[in-house]
Specification:
The chain has 21 helices and 19 strands. It is an alpha+beta fold. It folds into four domains: 2-154, no CATH class; 180-332, 2-Layer Sandwich (Beta-Lactamase); 354-504, 2-Layer Sandwich (Beta-Lactamase), CATH 3.30.450.40; 510-670, Reverse transcriptase/Diguanylate cyclase domain (Alpha-Beta Plaits). Strands 6, 7, 8, 9, 10, 11 and 12 form a seven-stranded antiparallel sheet that branches. A five-stranded antiparallel sheet has the order 2-1-5-4-3.
Length: 672
C-alpha cells in the first residue's frame, strides 16, 4: 500500500504540471479508483478475511496492477514506476516473506513488460532493459524475502521468550499463592497446557516411595478424570520415571519406542492414548528428586517438536515448582508437628478429665483421626486368663464393630502384645513373606495394605494394644509410629484409671456373696434387653428360680453352708448358659436368668440342664458330713409370647415359679 500511495502522490504532483483538461480528468478518475480500492480493501475485505492466507497476495496483485495503470497517465514521468515496483516487491518480502516477494516480482515484471510493449514492438534496447529489470526484481525479492524471514524469526523468538517469561511468571504466582498443592498444581498444569502449548501436562510427587498425581491438564476433553485415578506404588514401575529419577535429568519418550514393549498400557495410562511424544522432567531440590513434571504431545514431532528450547524452559519451570513443593512440605511438616503436640496435650487433659472407658476411647479416636489418617482404628485390652485380646473399640471404614476378640497367639496384635514391641508394616503386598506372623482379618473382610500397632501399659504391666490400619500402602511412617507410641504412653494411665473405675462400678452392680448381678443391676439389664428386642425384634426368655427348703440348710448346717449353697447355684447356672446371658440374685434364695434370643423351648432346655447339673453336685460339711444337693423350682416366661415389658415378664415368670412350688418343688413350669 505504501507504493500505491506513492503512485497516487506522484499523480497528484503531475496535476500541477501543464496538462490538458482531459488528462487531468483521467488522473482524477485514477486517483478516485485508488482511493476506492484502499477503502474497499481496508474497511470491507480485510476485516472479514484477515485470517485468510490469500489476503496479502490480493493486496500485492491489486497494488501492482494499479501502479501499472499509472504508466499510461504519467507519460514522460513514468520512469518512477519501476522504482515503485521495487518498493512493492521489497515490502512484500518483509511482510509476506519469500513467497510474497517472488509473487510480487513476477506480477510486476509481467505488468512492466506488458505496458512497455503495448504501443510498439519491443526494441533491442527495451529487451535489454527488461532483462536488467528481471535481475533487479529477482534480487530485490531474494533480499527482501531473506530479510523478512530474519525479521520474522527474531520477532517469533522475542514473542516466544516473552511468552515463556509470562508463563514462568504466571506459573510462579499461581504456585506460590497457596501452600495447598492439591489446589495450585492443577492450575499450574492448566497454564502450561494453554501457554506452552502442549496437549497434556501432569505433575506427580513422591510420597513414601509412591508416585502420586497432584495436577493434570489436557487440551482434549475427557482425559483428566480417567487419568488422575492412577497412582503408582513403585517408582521403578515406569521406565521413563525410573530413568529420570536415577539421572536427575529430563527424559524424552516416543510412542514408537514403547508400543513394542510391555509398557505400552502404562504409557497410555500415564500420558493418555493420543500422546505421540512425551518428556519427563524431574523436580530436584537439595540434590533430591521430589517429583516429576511431564508433558505429552499428540501432534507429530515435525509439527510441534519437543526441542531443546522447550526442554530448557520445562527444566527452569521444574526448578521453580521444586522450590514451591519443598516449601509446602516444610510447612506441612511444621503444621503436622504442631498438630501432634496439640493432640498429645489434649490427651494429657483427657487423662485427668475422663474416667468412663467408652468416653475415653471416643475422645482418643476423635484426636487420632486428626493426626494419623487411617481406615481402621482399634484398641484392645489383654485378658491374660482367657489368652485373648478383647477389642474395646474397632472402627473400620467408619463402621463400628462390637464384641470382637483376637486370640493372643494369633495375628499382628497378638505378636505386638507377646513381644511387647511396636510393629510397622508399610506395604503388606511387598512384606508378606517377611512378616513374623500371619495377619488375622477383623472388621471388614478386606485385607489392609499397611498396619501400625504399639503396646501400652502402666509400668511393667502390659495391658493392651493401640493400632491403626489403611487400605492404601505406605500410609504410615516412623513419625506416625513415634506419635502412636507417645499416645499409648500418655493414654496408659487414663486407661488404667478408666479400667479401675469400671471395676468399681461393676463391683457395685454385683452381689458381694455370689458375684451375680444384684437386684437393681439385674432389673436394668432386663429393661435394656427388652428395649433392644423392641428395636431389633428377637425373643427374650426369663427363668426365675428359687432354692427349695433353703431355710433348712441355714438351720441344720449353719449359715456358712447356706452361703456355699447360694454360690453353688450361681456356679452351676454359669456352666449351663452362654457368656452373654445375665444371672442375677433377685433376693434371698431367688435368682433370675436372662436368655436373650432364646425361645421357650431353648429356655426350657437350659432350665432342665441346670436342674440335672445341680443334681450331680455334692456338698460336704466341715466335719465331713455329707449334705444333700439342693433342688430348685423354676418358672419360665418369654417375650413377646407372654409379656411386652420387663415388669410384665418378671411377673409372668414369677407366677410360673409359684406354680412349680405348688406342684411339689424341684419342678420346671412355663407360664400359660
Amino acid at each position: 500500500m505504501s507504493a500505491l500511495g506513492a503512485t497516487a502522490g506522484l499523480l497528484l504532483l503531475t496535476l500541477l504540471l501543464p496538462r490538458s483538461a482531459q488528462q487531468k480528468q483521467q488522473l482524477l478518475l485514477y486517483l478516485l479508483g485508488v482511493s476506492a480500492y484502499i477503502f474497499l480493501f481496508y474497511w470491507v475485505i480485510y476485516p472479514r478475511f484477515w485470517r485468510q492466507r490469500w489476503i496479502p497476495f490480493v493486496n500485492i496483485l491489486a497494488s501492482i496492477v494499479l501502479i501499472s495503470g499509472a504508466y499510461f497517465l504519467l507519460g514522460k514521468h513514468s520512469f518512477a514506476i519501476n522504482g515503485l515496483f521495487v518498493v512493492v516487491i521489497f515490502l512484500s518480502g518483509i511482510f509476506s516473506y519469500p513467497l510474497g516477494a517472488y509473487f510480487a516480482a513476477v506480477i510486476a515484471l509481467l505488468c512492466s513488460i506488458a505496458v512497455d510493449n503495448f504501443y510498439s514492438e519491443p526494441t533491442e534496447q527495451q529487451l535489454l532493459n527488461q532483462g536488467i529489470l528481471i535481475i533487479q526484481f529477482l534480487i530485490t525479492a531474494h533480499i527482501s524475502g531473506a530479510l523478512g524471514n530474519l525479521l520474522a524469526s527474531q520477532v517469533y523468538k522475542r514473542q516466544q521468550e516473552n511468552q515463556d517469561l509470562t508463563l514462568l511468571l504466571n506459573a510462579s504466582l499461581t504456585a506460590t499463592q497457596s501452600l495447598n498443592l492439591n489446589q495450585t498444581m492443577p492450575q499450574v498444569m492448566q497454564k502450561i497446557v494453554s501457554f506452552l502449548p502442549v496437549t497434556y501436562a501432569r505433575i506427580d510427587l513422591i510420597e513414601d516411595g509412591r508416585l502420586v498425581p497432584y495436577g493434570i491438564a489436557s487440551q482434549r476433553y475427557g482425559i483428566e478424570p480417567w487419568i488422575k485415578l492412577h497412582c503408582y506404588p513403585n517408582l521403578t514401575q515406569l521406565p521413563w520415571i525410573k530413568a529420570a529419577f536415577q539421572s536427575q535429568h529430563s527424559v524424552q519418550v516416543h510412542r514408537d519406542q514403547i508400543d513394542l514393549t510391555p509398557f505400552w498400557l502404562d504409557f497410555n495410562q500415564f500420558f493418555s492414548a493420543c500422546t505421540k511424544t512425551a518428556c519427563v522432567v524431574p523436580l530436584v531440590t537439595s540434590a533430591q528428586v521430589v517429583g516429576f513434571l511431564s508433558i505429552g504431545e499428540s501432534r507429530g514431532q515435525e509439527r510441534e517438536p519437543i526441542g531443546k528450547v522447550k526442554v530448557e524452559f520445562l527444566e527452569t519451570l521444574a526448578n521453580q515448582i521444586a522450590v514451591v513443593v519443598e516449601n509446602a512440605h516444610l510447612h506441612w511438616q511444621e503444621q503436622k508437628k504442631a498438630k501432634r503436640l496439640e493432640v498429645l496435650n489434649h490427651i494429657a487433659n483427657v487423662i485427668g478429665s475422663t474416667i468412663e472407658m467408652d468416653a475415653l476411647l471416643q475422645q482418643l479416636y476423635n484426636l487420632l483421626i486428626q493426626v494419623i489418617p487411617a481406615d481402621t482404628y482399634y484398641f484392645g485390652i489383654v485378658d491374660w486368663q482367657k489368652q485373648v485380646i478383647e477389642l474395646k473399640m474397632l472402627l473400620d471404614a467408619g463402621e463400628r464393630y462390637e464384641g470382637l476378640s483376637i486370640p493372643l497367639n494369633q495375628g499382628l496384635a497378638g505378636y505386638v502384645v507377646r513381644q511387647r514391641t511396636a510393629l510397622l508394616i508399610r506395604d503388606f503386598q511387598r512384606e508378606m513373606d517377611t512378616l513374623p506372623v500371619k495377619p488375622v482379618i477383623i472388621g471388614k473382610k478386606d485385607m489392609s495394605a499397611s498396619w501400625l500397632g504399639v503396646p501400652f501399659g502402666k509400668g511393667d504391666d502390659l495391658e493392651g494394644i493401640l493400632a491403626v490400619a489403611s487400605y492404601l500402602p505406605n500410609a504410615f511412617d516412623h513419625e506416625d509410629l513415634q506419635l502412636l507410641s507417645n499416645v499409648a504412653q500418655q493414654a496408659a494411665l487414663a486407661f488404667d484409671n478408666a479400667r479401675h473405675h469400671a471395676e468399681v462400678e461393676e463391683r457395685a452392680r454385683r452381689d458381694s456373696l455370689t458375684n451375680a448381678y444384684n437386684h437393681g443391676a439385674f432389673h436394668e439389664a432386663l429393661r435394656q434387653a427388652v428395649q433392644s428386642s423392641q428395636l431389633h425384634p428377637h425373643p427374650i426368655s426369663l427363668i426365675m428360680l428359687d432354692i427349695d427348703h433353703f431355710k433348712e440348710y441355714n438351720d441344720r448346717y449353719g449359715h456358712t453352708i447356706g452361703d456355699e449353697v447360694l454360690c453353688l447355684i450361681v456356679r452351676v447356672i454359669q456352666q449351663q448358659v452362654k457368656s452373654g446371658d445375665v444371672i442375677g440374685r433377685w433376693g434371698g434364695e431367688e435368682f433370675g436368668v436372662i436368655l436373650e434370643g432364646a425361645s421357650l423351648a431353648n429356655a426350657f432346655e437350659v432350665a432342665q440342664c441346670i436342674r440335672n447339673a445341680l443334681a450331680q453336685t455334692t456338698l460336704t460339711a466341715s466335719q465331713g458330713m455329707s449334705i444333700p444337693a439342693p433342688t430348685i423350682s423354676q418358672g419360665i416366661a418369654c417375650l413377646p409370647n407372654h409379656a411386652t415389658s420387663a415388669e410384665e415378664l418378671v411377673e409372668k415368670a414369677d407366677r410360673a415359679l409359684y406354680i412349680a412350688k405348688e406342684a411339689g418343688r424341684d419342678q420346671i413350669r412355663v407360664y400359660s
